[in-house]
Amino acid sequence: MCLDFANTNDWHASEHPVETLHSYTELVEWGKKAGIINDEDAEALIRLEANQHEPGAEVYHRAIETREAIFRIFARRYAGLPVAREDLAKLNSVVREARAHRELAPDVDGFTWKWADDVDPKNLVLWTVALSAATLLTSERSSRVRVCEDDRGCGALFIDMSKNHSRRWCSMESCGNRAKAHRHYSRVKVEASKGLPGSPSAEA
To answer: What is the DSSP string of 57-97?
Structure first.
């Protein structure tokens, strides 16, 4: 979930990222689609925001700041670089806040964590994403998090589940195919410049 949230900023590794979440309302809508907030709470939060009874601007800005910190943390790990202390501190602050609103509850197989009954739903997207990032960073799958290597700066984060851990692009249908086509074009161009058999210049 935290990677999906990080990817709400398209072309994250480029000089001109494209924001897809422009307001607290859109943040809530994303949370509803992700299954974090139920329909009733989402409608109530959007209604409060529209009436300006409880503006969500602060929550929205914190969510965007946390998203960028999460992206930089995983991107730097993938690049083999040390994580910035400021980014980890920002994520930790939200994680501590979220955990303070969690409690144990009986479950079919024993016990599970759940949100406290009196939790304010306006922070649920931010808190859930932060906990997701903390869980992923402390799991074995953390080493499989990749950044799309598209040379235009796609920057999408994903978990490489391939057998040989060699996946380089967010999708073969988009960035992967483009990269393959670019390599083919470059190879043909080099062969043509050298006059190799099968190249346009050699045949001429």
So the answer is: HHHHHHHHHHHHHHHHHHHHHHTT-PPPHHHHHHHHHHHHH
> How many whole angstroms separate alpha carbon 180 and alpha carbon 105?
51
**Whole-model pTM?**
0.85
Could you state, in order of their start, the residue ranges of all structural domains in the chain? 2-168, 171-204
d(CA 93, CA 99): 10
- Mean pLDDT value of segment 62-72: 98
Spell out where the chain has E strands. 9-10, 18-19, 102-107, 110-115, 145-147, 157-159
End-to-end CA distance of the chain: 55
Q: Rounded to whole angstroms, what are the CA distances from 19 to 16, 23, 26, 75?
A: 9, 10, 11, 18
At the top level of CATH, the class of 2-168 is: mainly alpha
Write down the mean pLDDT value for the chain: 88
CA distances in angstroms from 147 to 28, 81, 88, 126, listed in the order given = 26, 13, 19, 22
Instruction: Provide, rounded to the nearest whole percent, the portion of the chain with pLDDT above 70.
Output: 84
